[in-house]
Amino acid sequence: MLDVSDAVRAEIGEAEADRLLAGENAPGSYDCTSCRTPGDTGQERTSTVLFVGDETAVLAFAHATCIPSQVVTVSEDQLQGAVRSITGDRTPPAPQAPSVASVPPPAPAGPQPGPRQAVLGVTCGQVLIKDTLHAAIVVEPTGPITRPGSDGPGDDFLPLLIEQGFMPVTDVAGQPSPVSGWSVLLAMGQLHAILQPPAGPGAQPVAWWQAHQPLAVTEGWRTAANKSHTVIVYAAPSGSIGQQPREDLLREALEKAAAGGVLVAAAMPLAGT
């Protein structure tokens, strides 16, 4: 009951793919690389997920209901962390906040700024929409984002995202619309990246934001994301949200940004396709 996508088959070769499908190299039982709960290739449909770094590749397995079979490009450091996880190196995880995980990753902001550079701060939490909790990511740069080629004093962060399909939010209680080609990569139970559409036909999605180290999320966040297979991504200009330590304060900050006309959002599928 194993799914091997054409992209994975092309990377691992026909012979290895056939051995997997014949059950010769299938793991039997496994921990899903997305939701981290047990799975069984003999009892339920299972996706093969190939993580590819600069020098290393790791084949992992996931419930087909969590993510499809695919090739995921990650940094070599992230891949080495995956190897340690798969081979049983129980390095203690990073401390995790009880309700909200926050990180300011040291990665270039995207869309790419001009001469000024900023870092995208990311906060993970859950938002209540129509009596249902949804997994959410709030993105806020540490400084203004300028349009490529511009050296003006303005902040083009929101206009650039609106051009990509994000929509202005006037009411946080409303469900944001999906945005085509974007996705959120949750692998090995941790948040790795927000992916934007590939540059051309046949290309792999590229990271718009990528965690310097995989970001631990709460079990409630992961459960909500896996239940709907969707993550809501909010974005606001620098200074609009801040690093809020609790979900109720995060909700208040989002509502304030929406009321001020400085909040955009989009619904994205969980994991890349």
From TrEMBL:
Compositional bias of kind Pro residues: 103-114
Name of the protein in its database record: Uncharacterized protein
Region: Disordered, residue numbers: 85-117
